[in-house]
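Work Package 4 report. The design task specified in the project plan requires that, given a folded chain encoded as structure tokens, an amino acid be chosen for each position. We show below one input record used in the internal validation round.
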């Protein structure tokens, strides 16, 4: 009986493996849509791709997709001192983009595309219940990317993406008296291993 069960298990495993290898799982047809989850986590807000942790994508025609990523974070740090100092940092980003599959087979797709970035951020410092300073920042940017998507199952995929991006930020500083002045302007280009990103996709149709 034991040998029989082992034989049945081996036959079932072989059948399932053969089916998985022969059954196309790639999703690139018009109407295919997915939710995207950055494997770095929701707390990592940045300018590139889905650093906010959540996105969506839909194919408007075969191999051509529109996508967007959003991110939000809010952190509060309280210092246990007589002034009751508190620092609150908030940021929001949105990154719409377009992607085109340059190659795909039954379970792998290679793609390239571009996207733009818009972001808002704010850091407030309070003491004894009163605001002592505030820095507000606005960020614009854009970039191009290339990547590979592997479908172990029909509705689930794993993407590895590499991007080159540029972003520029302007800021305003408000002091305790409410006077607003221009803050520093910054810009940077993201290029290197830190621009690589893993994304999990769940296709729901």
């Amino acid at each position: 009986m034991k040998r029989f069960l082992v034989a049945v298990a081996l036959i079932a495993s072989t059948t399932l493996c053969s089916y998985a290898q022969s059954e196309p799982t790639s999703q690139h047809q018009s109407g295919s849509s997915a939710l995207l989850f950055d494997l770095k986590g929701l707390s990592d807000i940045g300018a590139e791709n889905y650093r906010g942790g959540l996105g969506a994508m839909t194919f408007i025609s075969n191999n051509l997709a529109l996508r967007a990523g959003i991110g939000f974070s809010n952190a509060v740090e309280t210092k246990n001192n007589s002034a009751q100092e508190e620092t609150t940092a908030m940021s929001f980003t949105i990154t719409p983009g377009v992607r085109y599959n340059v190659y795909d087979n039954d379970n792998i797709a290679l793609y390239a595309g571009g996207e733009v970035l818009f972001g808002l951020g704010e850091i407030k410092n309070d003491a004894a219940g009163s605001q002592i300073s505030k820095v507000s920042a606005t960020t614009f940017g854009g970039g191009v990317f290339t990547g590979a998507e592997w479908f172990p199952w029909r509705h689930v995929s794993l993407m590895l993406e590499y991007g080159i991006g540029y972003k520029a930020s302007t800021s305003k500083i408000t002091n305790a008296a409410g006077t607003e002045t221009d803050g520093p302007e910054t810009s940077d280009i993201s290029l290197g291993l830190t621009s690589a990103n893993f994304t999990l996709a769940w296709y729901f149709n």
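The radius of gyration is 23 Å. Validation will be extended to a larger panel in the next phase.
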